[in-house]
């Protein structure tokens, strides 16, 4: 049975403050829940409808955590989705771990990307292109924000990330730092790139003054129209696609 | 002075039903308002703060429509933005005009793209790559939805669009129809493309059964990771970038 206390607890996880306090977050919808069940994240509590349990019998059989059988109405009352007839999971956060410079891999670094939808979309793009490591400045949106988790479409389970001082990390790592600018080298004319860091800036301010001097390669996405700029997730995708074409 | 009736009128424009009835929509924020003032859209009413008028003196001098000087607080009470210290415009819609097949140009067609943020972002991408014509199925998100206008970042003023039966249009036009699939030709291996239609499908269902047989060229964005798919706006951007590289 879904107790009042459990309802109250899950509702507190809608707020960042309580997520941090509890070191737990929640996610909802069949796809995200199945992805997290198939990952190394620890699930604290699973709320699932009859329908979810029936259509995912095998997955449910190997699930060992706490389970509450709930109705669609109950799910919708605790989550953020307007409509959810499947499941919601309360999951333990992973600690913020620094990682060493990966060899022969592109790493995406985000300099104050604030919009949770953009962050989630960038995580999904990273996962599409097989990029496993992400660096986030302290002011970048929170990885465990429900909108980030939702936009990542399960890809959040497959990336490693570290929140910290990007300038310090860049100073320690010996590799090129690629940054998107309006006056850089045309990415369609690159004939070689090396693994390194792809640095993407804030939605309105771009790459910060502190990090700009650390960019070793300024890149530009050529456009022939009149839009002044591209959304940061869109630009990330186009750059990743151009890197992938060159084997990085 | 901002009358109660004007407040009430603008608030009705938050709803699609009233936008259609009045054939008017609204947009807010300095960038969008300046872009629409610089376009061939007819502005019905402009609400502007002292700050907006002072920092855009020249633009204001050539503005001939109705103007109301308002406070930031008043702007925020009628619009959707949490914070708006500049302006809000009520603008006349353009009629839904069919256009003939443009020559030597790529046209983007959207088959039931439902999310307003995706539609606005795709309009911005089109404008970046100089794509001027867009075709929308009837079930595609509404062009004048405030979220579409906002996500397009002013680019909505520079594209032509037509809502209608895509199958009929495709049957009339003689050109290739490119569609994104998971099992198509690798876009990194294309060495030539011709102007035509780039068809993008619904967020969850992809390209509809009705239109799928009309796709002449199935394309695939190669990925080496584990994400099952890409967001539709992201895929549109990557495809446009690959077409632009080949001169289309």
Count of DSSP helices of chain A?
Answer: 10
Q: Largest interface, with Cβ-Cβ < 8 Å?
A: A-B, 35 and 35 residues
- Largest sheet data of chain A: 6 strands, parallel
CATH fold category name of the largest domain in chain A? Alpha/beta knot
Number of strands of chain A: 10
* Low-confidence segments of chain A: none
The CATH superfamily of the largest domain in chain A is identified as SPOUT methyltransferase, trefoil knot domain
Our count of domains of chain A comes out at 2
- Quickly give the structural class of chain A: alpha/beta
CA gyration radius of chain A, whole angstroms? 20 Å
Instruction: Enumerate the strands of the largest sheet of chain A in spatial order, edge to edge or round the barrel.
Output: 7-6-5-9-8-10
Oligomeric state of shown chains: homodimer
| General shape of chain A | elongated
Q: What is the CATH level 1 assignment of the largest domain in chain A?
A: Alpha Beta
The overall pLDDT average of chain A reads 96
Q: What CATH architecture label of the largest domain in chain A applies?
A: 3-Layer(aba) Sandwich
Terminal CA distance of chain A = 50 Å
β-strand amount of chain A: 15-25%
Helix content of chain A: 25-40%
Order of helices and strands of chain A: HHEHEHHEHEEHEHEHEEEH
Explain the overall architecture.
- 2 copies of one chain form a homodimer.
- Chain A is an alpha/beta fold and 248 residues long.
- Chain A folds into 2 domains: 89 residues, 60s Ribosomal Protein L30, Chain: A (2-Layer Sandwich), CATH 3.30.1330.30; 139 residues, SPOUT methyltransferase, trefoil knot domain (Alpha/beta knot), CATH 3.40.1280.
- Chain A is 33% helix and 21% strand.
- Chain A is built from 10 helices and 10 strands.
- In chain A, strands 7-6-5-9-8-10 form a 6-stranded parallel β-sheet, with helices on one face.
- Chain A is elongated, with a radius of gyration of 20 Å.
- Chain A starts with a helix and ends with a helix.
- The model of chain A has no long low-confidence stretch (mean pLDDT 96).
- At the A-B interface, helix 7 and helix 10 of A face helix 7 and helix 10 of B.
- Chains A, B: GO terms for molecular function: RNA binding; RNA methyltransferase activity.
- Chains A, B: It comes from Algoriphagus halophilus.
- Chains A, B: It holds the Pfam family MRM3-like_sub_bind.
- Chains A, B: One of its GO terms (biological process) is methylation.
- Chains A, B: Keywords: Methyltransferase, Transferase.
């Amino acid at each position: 049975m879904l107790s009042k206390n459990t309802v109250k607890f899950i509702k507190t996880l809608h707020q960042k403050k309580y997520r941090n306090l509890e070191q737990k977050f929640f996610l909802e919808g069949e796809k995200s829940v199945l992805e997290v069940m198939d990952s190394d994240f620890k699930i604290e509590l699973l709320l699932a409808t009859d329908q979810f349990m029936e259509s995912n019998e095998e997955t449910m059989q190997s699930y060992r955590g706490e389970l509450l059988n709930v109705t669609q109405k109950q799910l919708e009352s605790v989550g953020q989705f307007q409509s959810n007839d499947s499941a919601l999971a309360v999951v333990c956060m992973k600690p913020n771990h620094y990682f060493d410079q990966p060899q022969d891999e592109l790493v995406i670094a985000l300099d104050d990307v604030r919009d949770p939808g953009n962050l989630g979309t960038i995580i999904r793009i990273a996962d599409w292109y097989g990029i496993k490591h992400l660096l986030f400045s302290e002011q970048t949106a929170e990885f465990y924000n429900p909108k980030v988790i939702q936009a990542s479409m399960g890809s959040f389970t497959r990336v490693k990330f570290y929140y910290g001082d990007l300038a310090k990390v860049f100073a320690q790592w010996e590799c090129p730092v690629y940054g998107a600018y309006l006056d850089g080298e045309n990415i369609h004319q690159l004939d070689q790139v090396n693994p390194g860091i792809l640095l993407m800036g804030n939605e309105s301010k771009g790459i910060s003054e502190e990090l700009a001097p650390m960019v070793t390669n300024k890149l530009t996405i050529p456009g022939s129209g009149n839009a002044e700029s591209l959304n940061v997730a869109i630009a990330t995708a186009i750059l990743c696609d151009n890197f992938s074409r060159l084997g990085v």
